[in-house]
Amino acid sequence: MEELKKHIEQYGKNRGNGILFVPFLNHEIEPDFTCRMGEEFAKIFAALKPTKVLTAETSGIIPAFVAAKALKIPMIFARKNKPSSMSDDYYIDTMESRTYNKTTNVIVLKQFINPNDRILIIEDMLATGQSVNALARLTEKAGAHLVGVGVVVEKAFEEGRKNTTHLKVPIHSLACITSLDNGKIVFN
Question: 2-187 maps to which CATH number?
Answer without folding.
Answer: 3.40.50.2020
